[in-house]
Write a structure and sequence with these properties.
Length: 103
C-alpha cells in the first residue's frame, strides 16, 4: 500500500507544479502524465477513499475542478476517481484529464 501524496507530495520530497490550492485541497500537474493534460486533485488531509470523504469535501473538490476547467478551457475533459482495486495510491485523488492519451 503506497500513498504517493503523503509520502512524496505533502512531504515535499517531490516538487509539483500547482494549478490551484485551497485550505483543504491541492491541484497540480501529474508528475508522470497519461494524458496531454493530466491534473491531480487531492485533499490535503489524509483520506483513504471516496467513501471516507465528507460530502462537503467532495463538493469542494468538484468546485476546484470546475474552476480549473474555467481557467484552462480544455476542449473535452473527464473527471475521474478510482476506488477499490482500481485505486493505485491509498489517498483519495481525482483526475482531470484532457487531450490524447500519451502512454
Ligand atoms: Zn495520505
Amino acid at each position: 500500500m503506497s500513498d504517493f501524496y503523503c509520502e512524496n507530495v505533502f512531504s515535499g520530497k517531490v516538487e509539483v507544479k500547482k494549478v490551484k490550492e485551497t485550505d483543504n485541497i491541492l491541484a497540480f500537474y501529474h508528475t508522470n502524465p497519461y494524458y496531454e493534460l493530466h491534473i491531480v486533485i487531492v485533499p490535503k488531509e489524509h483520506i483513504l477513499t471516496l467513501l471516507d470523504a465528507s460530502d462537503e469535501l467532495i463538493s469542494e473538490i468538484f468546485s476546484v475542478a470546475k474552476e480549473i476547467v474555467k481557467k484552462l478551457k480544455p476542449e473535452g475533459y473527464s473527471i475521474r476517481v478510482n476506488g477499490g482495486s482500481f485505486q493505485d495510491s491509498k489517498h483519495l485523488h481525482f483526475y482531470l484529464v484532457s487531450g490524447e492519451k500519451i502512454r
